[in-house]
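lol so apparently i was supposed to do this last week
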Amino acid sequence: MSDSEIRLYYKNVTTEVVGGEHGISPERLQELAGKTSPLISKLNEERRSGRIPYRDLPFNTKISQQVKELVARIDGDFENLVVLGIGGSALGNIALQTALNPYMYNIDENQRSGPRLFVFDNVDPPQFISFLEWLGPKLEKTVFNVVSKSGRTSETAAQFMIIRKLLIDKLGRESLRGHIVATTDPKEGTLRKIADDLNLQCLEVPDGVGGRFSVLSGVGLFSAAMCGIDIDSLLAGARDMDRRVSGEDFYKNPAAINAAINFHFYNTGKKISVMMPYSYALRDLADWYRQLWAESLGKKENKVGNEVFIGPTPVKALGTTDQHSQVQLYREGPNDKLFTFLEVQNFDKDINIGTAPDCAPELNFLAGKKMGMLLNSEKKATEYALLESKRPCLTIIFDKVDAYSVGQFIYLYEVTTSLAGALFDINPYDQPAVELGKEATFALMGKSDQEDLARQIQSLSEVDSNYLI
Ligand code: PA5
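anyway here it is w/ 5-phosphoarabinonic acid bound
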């Protein structure tokens, strides 16, 4: 057990706080309870019958053991760890690192207990070249974790092929096994084939676990463990949340309440869902959430094939930074958003604000106060201002940010997504609309058997100078 919990606070979405037009009444919440409770049971049943394998990741000791053994084997050999992946094969890694390691981790060796971590989730030539130039002779002390469930994602494949050539050219073909860890499907796919062929060290993305639900598998655990994050505690937090979100009492189940509230607001015209952490550490969890929410819930068809074009639009903001960028719109623009703040009650480190210069006594109100107090006051102030404008607000309260609470958060949002999918009556586990773009890229990059598609795209994407100014 840990003293670090996360809790969901939802009073500020109710009619009592934001009024009848924009809030949820107790009666409506009761209706939502009636609709959601059977879906919790159904989800539990699906999970028991093995149809939602991500639910079992926190209990999968085989994976965490494999990760720990691999880390123990290579720990100390490398100064740099480079993750090559995209989407669900990168966002969780980034989120864990930002949440659980210090801001200057890569820069200051006194602030890190593992290798520097770089996650490349793009194919941007200047960015990649700049990195390779920096890497130079450090290649020998660098391990690459190529993460791709399918193994056929162009971005990851391209990065891998550049790195493979670099390793062969600089360190020889025999260096590949020692310098690459492949995280992929246990049985099939292009990366699996390559890994088997090159006899690479491997970690698995278990069968049936989609990319955006895979952070608690080898996908996210390896880079986390390499960088000194306590993965046992992360998984323990997720297990604790599993108990809470499996409970069939709607009012005690944070995923059920969260999903139902999101469902309600989407259906009453608040189709945008803003997640706003008041904590730099939690910033990239909002990015991870954005993908989870968008790819899972943005669907053309419901489960029986009717066109529904469903999907709340997730937006990420950061407190206090975006107070000075977005809050004008959030308060006075259309009332079409549900806000979810992430608030940290106890920062693991805090600092006193110094005294005001004599010439600026008007700053005395800040003197001697903690910076964390300022951050949290700004959260409360922004929430107050939004509530004044009748904008509904949820808050996820973190006692503190540690591996345990982050594990809880990840699992809470994964199950919230499953339940929201059930409420919207769509399949949250596929992403058919992403596939066309992937196929189109193959075609444009000259993949054989895709010539027709390539011609079709060319004719559409040819620039018509009549419209070019
Ligand atoms: O959530 C998903 O399924 C996607 O975002 C994938 O993670 C992403 O497209 C990368 O796919 P892959 O891991 O097969 O390279």
